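sorry for the late reply, my laptop died twice this morning and i had to redo everyting from scratch. anyway the thing you sent over, i finally got around to it. pasting the sequence first so we're on the same page, its 349 residues, then the predicted structure underneath. double check i copied it right bc i was rushing
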Amino acid sequence: MKLFKEVKMNIGKFNLDTDGTFIIAEMSANHNGNLQTALDTIKAAKECGANAIKLQTYTADTITLNSKEDDFMIDGGTLWDGQNLYELYESAHTPWEWHKELFEYARSIDIDIFSSPFDKSAVDFLETFNPSAYKIASFEITDYELIRYTASKGKPMIISTGIAYEEEIQDAVDICRDAGNNNIILLKCTSAYPAPLEDSNLLSIPDLAKRFDVVSGFSDHTLGSTAPIIAVSHGAKVIEKHFILDKSIGGADCEFSMDAKDFKEMVKNIRDAELLLGQVDYSMNEQKQKSRNYSRSIYVCKDIKKGEKFTNSNLKSVRPGYGMHPKYLDEVLGTVATKDYSFGQRFEK
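ok and here's the structure:
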């Protein structure tokens, strides 16, 4: 019996029901504009135990306007205050001409790779690489045309819900289904960088699955690995975490990204959590049976002669567990011995 409902969905070769938690290393801007860093990041993600590396596919022109009007200036207590959106995305984007090499390299070392498209042209471009899934970023959940067009490609849809109202989440799910795509994964997400622990609300993970009849997971922007481990214990089948080779290289997403050492530890902790969760099981295995030998049973605690009554002074429930089950003690007390018993003998009538 499974602790959480059965999931009939694959991302590439990964079966979400039988293979555990699908762990995504989000590269985002952590290549810092260097192709070799991007390739090294993919290799490190594989070595750390990630199941997939995720890119972001946009240019500054496909995601915003090059304007310094107040609306386009970042001023909200973020890591990027003072820049306009165009400057941020121009410095952070993954060059499209890298994609072919990144996809080929990831596949050559057997780590899955896919991306977040930010407009239809990015979807068309990514389709040439036949990705295993698509990720809709939290801030794009309101772009219904992007969701509809991406869902129409028939790949699993991983959608972050960070900034969405409940009705917008429902809209996104309905759009996917209307496009004939029911392979939907909703990620609980707090769109703050880094995200405060008290805003994570991980109890939403099982509710997302139940309320929208989808697979649920967690896109994590907190620091450390506590949140992903707890997310898995609440049924998250997908974990996404920003990943950086080494924080010393800096960059737009450095402050809320996990380095290779900590990411590897997070993966180990998640796999340990999966083992700990196991499944609902009341069966008696060999180890349990052996351990029962040290439980209580009825033993003779004073020599008993044939014809004597059994009393609390000559029978006792003690460890180990080789004698009669203690539940029968009350039935035995007051009856008469039909043979002699010696101190320390297992009581078996």
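The longest strand covers residues 238-244.
thats about all i looked at so far, will dig more tmrw
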